[in-house]
């Protein structure tokens, strides 16, 4: 089974990426793994800057239900303390991901597909502050999952 790992930050772009990826996962019979890294120091109730672990889990569960109900894809949720950019490669290796998608506001520029020298899992970095580029995502996913000629997702194409 192929695994697609998507690190989400609950932005609109990350939700669009997750929806598109869920549709593709369903079509290629892959499992979508939604990942969120939280800041452990921010899990106490006195911090208002970051959501608590419980709040993150509830948001991730809600997103997973929405994606499953929309696409029928197999979806797993995973939260872990740490930084998205540091944890995604370790998680990708652990779950044997075919591709890891990192949605994060601190990524500069446009979508970029890279392969780290320390990890063979390709990582597609998507800035959540830039406009969503479905063609770049489609191309990277289709190439990595060996799906030639894959068309844009019907749910996203209609929005």
TrEMBL record:
Per UniProt, residues of the UspA domain are 1-99
Gene3D superfamilies for the chain: HUPs
List the Pfam families hit by this protein, alphabetically: Usp
Domain of life, per UniProt, equals: Bacteria
**Can you name this protein?**
Universal stress protein
Q: Which organism is it from?
A: Pontibacter rugosus
């Amino acid at each position: 089974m192929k695994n697609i790992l998507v690190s989400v930050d609950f932005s609109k772009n990350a939700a669009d990426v997750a929806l598109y990826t869920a549709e593709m996962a369903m079509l290629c019979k892959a499992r979508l793994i939604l990942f969120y890294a939280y800041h452990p120091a921010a899990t106490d109730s006195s911090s208002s800057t970051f959501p608590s672990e419980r709040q993150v889990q509830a948001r991730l569960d809600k997103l997973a239900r929405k994606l499953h109900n929309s696409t029928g894809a197999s979806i797993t949720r995973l939260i872990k303390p740490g930084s998205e950019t540091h944890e995604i490669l370790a998680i990708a290796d652990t779950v044997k991901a075919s591709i890891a998608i990192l949605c994060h506001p601190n990524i500069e520029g446009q979508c970029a597909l890279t392969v780290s020298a320390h990890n063979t899992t390709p990582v597609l970095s998507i800035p959540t502050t830039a406009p969503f580029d479905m063609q770049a995502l489609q191309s990277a996913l289709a190439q990595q999952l060996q799906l030639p000629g894959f068309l844009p997702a019907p749910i996203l194409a209609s929005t």
